Amino acid sequence: MPGVGGGANPGTCIPNGFHMRCMNSSACCGVNGIDGESGMAALSFVGDATVHLVFPLLCPMADMDAPLLPALQAIVGQANVLTSESDVLPFVIDWRERYRGRARAVVRPGSTAEVAAVVGCCAEQGVPIVPQGGNTGLCGGATPSADGNEIVLVLSRLNRVRAIDRDNATMTVEAGLPLASVQAAASAAGLLFPLSLAAEGSCQIGGNLSTNAGGTGVLRYGNARDLVLGLEVVLSDGRVWNGIITAAILKLFPQPRTSATAWVALADVESAVRLLGVMRQALGDRLTGFELISADCVALANAQFPSFPDPLPGHAWYVLVQADDAAADSALAAALESALAGAIGEGVAQDAAIAQSQAQSDQMWSLREHIPEAQKREGPNMKHDISVPVSRIPAFLARAREALDAQFPGVRYVVFGHLGDGNLHYNLSECHRLRPGCGVRRQLQRRARHRADEARRARAVQTGNRARADAAHQARARSGGKAQSRKGRLRND
Ligand SMILES: Cc1cc2nc3c(=O)[nH]c(=O)nc-3n(C[C@H](O)[C@H](O)[C@H](O)COP(=O)(O)OP(=O)(O)OC[C@H]3O[C@@H](n4cnc5c(N)ncnc54)[C@H](O)[C@@H]3O)c2cc1C
């Protein structure tokens, strides 16, 4: 049975019953409820999350026994079915280069109808599909498995803004549009699409919705699922929700006219939780970001990126506070300043620096956003995203540290993230002073050996020019392989 899945995160199987043969002809029998002209079962978007079902429009292969690749080429064009090792390589390795798979082909449809036809052909021939957006997911969901039986369905050619409705504050975009382009299009219309995460220059809205991405604005605006009114999804039949997202109608908000950013120094995480309460009380829903950052994270980022210095050196913890207001001339900065002064007076915070310009605000955010890349550059690490009730975070951090210190003495904690919604990156790094034989060192070495074995196996079964593959891979790493910000520079986590 064909499925939609991925290496480390297998997805949903496509049920049988895909009514393919009708789709070979424009005179469809209508069993799938396909509109005679458009070939789509078009439901209008009403209220929340209405599904817009799109059935395969047309599979040009009359002969269902034809081999897969010619069938796919006939749908999307020869240039959009990649099979050579060097072409395929960037799509079978994840962002951290931790997961590596193999694929029969990388297929790049250019329209919803082509996605539908590709899904139809694969369903017919029992070929599993791994959808891939920007390939910035960190858990291998977009990486095919090592058996090489799947195709990778890349959505990046579906990258149009179909409509922006300013009065309705909605926009309809295709799944392959990078998140930063979604934000830019909303902004050009004088509105805000508030989903924001460090991979936004590379990740795509389809991937964001598929993973229900969070990011820095969750506190105020919610996760990706809170920002979507309707989806266009290619399914194998009309009964299931899981499928390949080809477009979405998104909620837009008024653009902030006034913003304020502060870097706040704290003695401990308990104080950060108290400060969150203070800021909520003072700023209400103008509080849009509340990022916790340990001093170790700041040191790590600063060591790798010296151009982002620590604004308030010498403290154990920091919080990056962002406040935005849709009204111009609001007294936002004054409200933030007075709330922080009160917090310092009461001993909740130790010190605070308020950005005096957009450049200073960008500098603070850059320091925060370069932490993951700094950790990646430093060497092996283990990443965890934890979700804990905000009030329980201090207890979690204390207990986890106690347990890990006992098991892995010397391990380094790289803890940062979205305290406002209880979602932290709880990462472990190898300590340079770590003694040989330490448990974490052994685990990291085991993983490295495992990855090397997998890579060797993949090389052994693949033919083609290795040098070309490496060159292509390196070229990708130099250009598009890293997460780029909407401003074109690297942003992280
Ligand atoms: C530096 C960095 C920072 C990050 N920060 C955050 C963060 O703060 N919060 C957060 O939530 N995540 C974060 N992530 C993880 C990642 O960016 C998000 O999960 C993002 O939503 C993935 O989008 P993508 O287009 O890259 O998806 P991919 O990695 O390509 O795919 C992710 C999953 O979605 C599926 N998929 C992709 N497109 C479609 C589609 N059109 N239809 C159906 N399924 C699809 C894939 O099969 C896969 O299972 C970060 C990643 C990086 C590298």
Task: Summarize the structure in short.
Helices cover 32% and strands 19% of the residues. The chain has helices at residues 68-76, 85-88, 112-125, 179-188, 205-211, 218-221, 269-283, 295-304, 332-345, 358-369, 371-378, 393-407, 439-461, 466-478; strands at 50-54, 81-82, 105-107, 129-132, 151-154, 161-165, 170-174, 191-192, 228-234, 244-251, 253-254, 258-266, 287-294, 317-325, 351-354, 381-382, 385-387, 412-418, 423-429.
Strand content: 15-25%
| Mean pLDDT across every amino acid position | 78
N-to-C CA distance: 36 Å
The main sheet comes to:
8 strands, antiparallel
What portion of residues is helical? 25-40%
Number of strands: 19
Oligomeric state of this protein: single chain
Number of helices: 14
pLDDT < 50 stretches: 1-66, 459-493
Q: What is the 3D form?
A: globular
Ligands (ions, cofactors included): flavin-adenine dinucleotide
Computed CA radius of gyration, to the nearest angstrom: 24 Å
Class of secondary structure makeup: alpha+beta
